[in-house]
Each structure stands twice: as C-alpha cells, then as structure tokens.
Amino acid sequence: MISAQDAVLIYKLLSANGIPVWLTGGWGIDALLGEQTRPHKDLDVIVLFDDLARLGELLSREGFSLKELWSENRWVSDAQGAETATAFVLHHPDGREIDVHAMRLDDQGDGVPAWDSEGFSFKKQDLAGEGEIAGFAVRCLTPQAQVERHTGYELPDQQRGDLELLHKKYSIDDRNAQ
C-alpha cells in the first residue's frame, strides 16, 4: 500500500532530482479531490521518457525493483541506444508499488505516450492538473483527462467510485467511462 506520506515522499524525491511527475490513477484522482478517499495499492505516475534511467537509479537506491512489465509496454531506444521499458511496475520489499508510464513532449507541449497507447495522446491542457496530497501540491492529469483514461475497459468498483467523486466535484461527463 502507498500511504499519503509515501506518495508525497516519492513525488518529492523525483521532483527534487529534476524529474517532472504527473500523478494519475487513484492518487491522481484523490489529489484532484484534495483528500484521500480510499487506500491505494500503488502510485501511478507518468514521467518523461528521457528521465526513465534517472528514475530507475533513484528508486533503486530506495529499494524498488522491477516487478512486471505492462502488456502495453513497448521497448524504445534511449539516447544511448539502450532498449528501455515504457510501462512497468516497480515494487518495494515492504509492499509499496509504483506504476510508471513514460511519454515524450512534442513541440506543442502535448504528451505522446512512449508505450503502446493505441493512438491517444495527452493534450497540453490534460497535463495541467493540480492537486494536493496531505497538504502538498502535486501535478496530475486534469479531471477530464482522468475520466478519459478510464475508458475502454471494465472498471473495478473502486475506480467507478473515483469517477463518481470527480463527476460530483467537477461536473464532468463520464458517460463514456465503462
């Protein structure tokens, strides 16, 4: 499980080392809501592809290691020619997990997923979400982008509940979410 304190410490560690982070998933939604609404098994982050090596080094020093590659993972060559995973889960021996997805920014500031994303991208405005966890300001996907990322698959009850809370607070149309 990832507590609010864990989420903030990981976010601070990455940010302090020059790695921009966008929260998504459960903690991203709770950040938008400004409160923790349920326990979270992981911290879902989107980072820039070029920061993956540094992210791996930092989190490895903290005891995290690769747990699994997501089915949407795509191997991409980094600047040094090394094949790099773009969608994966890191695990700590104490049970904490970080779900990492990488993107690149295009010339307009839109996010282009490096993983197999079936053609979607993040518009610059999708990446402009702001929230807070335990009083600490974090960057996250916007409420509308969160809803849009929760489509195309059968949602577990807790994710449906997350979207209901977003809808209530932000009056977002979530009719397309499943």
Protein architecture, described:
With 178 residues, the chain is of the alpha+beta class. It has a single domain, classed as 2-Layer Sandwich (Beta Polymerase, domain 2), CATH 3.30.460. The chain contains 5 helices and 10 strands. The protein has helices spanning 4-16, 25-33, 52-61, 143-149, 157-170, and strands at 21-24, 43-48, 65-69, 76-77, 83-84, 87-91, 97-105, 111-113, 129-133, 136-140. A hairpin with a 5-residue loop joins strand 7 and strand 8 (111-113). Helix 2 runs parallel beside helix 5 (157-170). The longest helix has 14 residues, at 157-170.
Low-confidence stretches: 174-178
Tally of separate helices: 5
Number of domains: 1
Secondary-structure class: alpha+beta
Quote the distance from N terminus to C terminus: 25 Å
CATH topology title: Beta Polymerase, domain 2
Shape descriptor reads: globular
CATH class: Alpha Beta
Q: Report strand %.
A: 25-35%
Biggest sheet, open or closed, and with what strands and sense? Answer: 6 strands, mixed
- Kindly state the percentage of residues in helix: 25-40%
Q: Helix-strand pattern, N to C?
A: HEHEHEEEEEEEEHH
Q: Please give the CATH architecture.
A: 2-Layer Sandwich
Give the overall pLDDT as a whole number.
91
Radius of gyration: 15 Å
Number of strands: 10
